[in-house]
Design a protein that fits this description.
The chain has 366 residues and is an alpha+beta fold. It folds into four domains: 15-87, Roll (Ubiquitin-like (UB roll)), CATH 3.10.20.740; 106-225, Alpha-Beta Plaits, CATH 3.30.70.20; 230-290, Single Sheet (N-terminal domain of TfIIb); 295-365, no CATH class. It is built from nine helices and 16 strands. The chain has helices spanning 31-37, 89-104, 121-128, 165-174, 208-212, 221-224, 276-280, 308-326, 341-355; strands at 15-18, 21-24, 61-64, 71-72, 83-85, 153-155, 180-182, 189-191, 218-220, 234-239, 248-254, 257-263, 295-297, 303-305, 333-335, 360-362. A hairpin with a 5-residue loop joins strand 13 (295-297) and strand 14 (303-305).
Length: 366
């Protein structure tokens, strides 16, 4: 029996049988969550651990003793004494046929990995189950929006599989409800209110829909614009600089060029979420107008390159002159909301102890 058995806080052991192995679980967990913890490879296309279980794709079906038909493991709660089989010839056949059917409506089975965090999930499963047969090819139900003028999100619904992850992440994680579903059956479409363009909807361009889409139907236009930049794509974990929340991001680089941003799904402050700035506003990093050396205004009234020592001496001279000529209350300091706590503390200490005034605020209040 596994050492990971949980008593659920009531003193009674909760156990089930998973592929012939007795395992422990916490009451309230789903069969899928238990299976994931015990490293069973159950496929899914509609599942995102940040979202409520949906059970739409049916790829995560498992066999439960006593049940006539396989059940969706993501929506089925684990129960005391339950006996579950996660892999069998019958299940693998079901999963392969389901994948063939899903792929039959899509224009592209492979998309550029720059499209988004989860964009290769379907292609990976198609290869795993050898499901690229094309035997169910037919009409495609998706209607793309190539005329949407927004510069951030590609809406290529001919690659949509109606997993509704985009709709659910917009509602459950962002609370925007900018993406919805219209029609039924083969006519089902992902849409916005009144089937308009994104900028006229409640969309905040956070990019969450991009990063959860498993097919690239919603994709990162800014990253895709750099797909032809030579070199291997590398990821570097860092912190978004735009505010004090401290969202973790993975910068995508090729050579010395930043080509995109991925939210860190394991980021302790954001858990895969970003705002429009954190997701898309990285152009300043390599912009030609970005200052790479201090500039000091000379006697001619023009700005000239200077060393950091010269620049700091000039700034100190100006601050002291203002205090001497106009008094300490002539200074008002606005600190950056991007600064970490330690830097904010040092700034207020400098203003209060060094300049003798309490006139300091933070740009986050603006």
């Amino acid at each position: 029996m596994s050492d990971n058995i949980d008593d659920g806080g009531n003193g009674a052991l909760s156990t089930m049988t998973l592929d012939g192995e007795d395992v422990g679980f916490t009451p309230g967990e789903t069969v899928y969550e238990v299976s994931e913890r015990y490293r069973r490879e159950i496929p899914t296309l509609c599942y995102d651990e940040r979202l409520e279980p949906f059970g739409g794709c049916r790829l995560c079906i498992v066999e439960v003793e006593g049940s006539h038909n396989p059940v969706a493991s993501c929506t089925t709660k684990a129960a005391q004494g339950m006996k579950v089989t996660t892999k069998s010839g019958r299940l693998e056949m079901h999963r392969r046929v389901l994948l063939e059917l899903v792929a039959s409506e899509n224009r592209d089975l492979d998309v550029d990995p720059m499209s988004g965090y989860a964009s290769g999930e379907m292609a990976t499963l198609l290869d795993r189950y050898d499901a690229r047969t094309g035997r169910f090819l037919g009409l495609r139900s998706g209607t793309s929006h190539p005329d949407d003028p927004n510069p951030f999100i590609l809406r290529d619904y001919e690659n949509c599989i109606s997993c509704f992850r985009c709709v659910r992440v917009c509602a459950e994680q962002e609370g925007d409800y900018a993406i919805s579903v219209m029609n039924r059956g083969f006519g089902t479409q992902i849409t916005t209110e009144f089937d308009g363009i994104l900028k006229d909807s409640a969309c905040t361009f956070c990019g969450q829909c991009i990063q959860t889409c498993p097919t690239g139907a919603l994709a990162d236009l800014k990253a895709l614009a750099s797909k032809d930049v030579p070199g291997e794509t590398k990821l570097t974990r860092t912190i978004c600089p735009y505010c004090g929340v401290g969202c973790s991001v993975d910068l995508m680089t090729r050579g010395d060029q930043v080509v995109g941003v991925l939210p860190a799904m394991d980021g302790p402050a954001n858990h895969g979420a970003l705002c429009v700035k954190g997701q898309f506003a990285f152009d300043f990093i390599g912009h030609e107008d970005r200052l790479d050396t201090p500039l000091v205004r000379g006697d001619d009234g023009q700005l000239h390159p200077a060393t950091w020592d010269d620049a700091l001496d000039k700034a100190a001279e100006g601050l002291l002159a203002a205090v001497d000529n106009h008094g300490r209350h002539s200074l008002y300091v606005v600190a950056s909301g991007r600064a970490p706590t330690e830097a904010a503390y040092m700034m207020q200490k400098f203003v209060r102890a060094g300049l003798g005034t309490n006139y300091i605020d933070n740009c986050s209040r603006a």
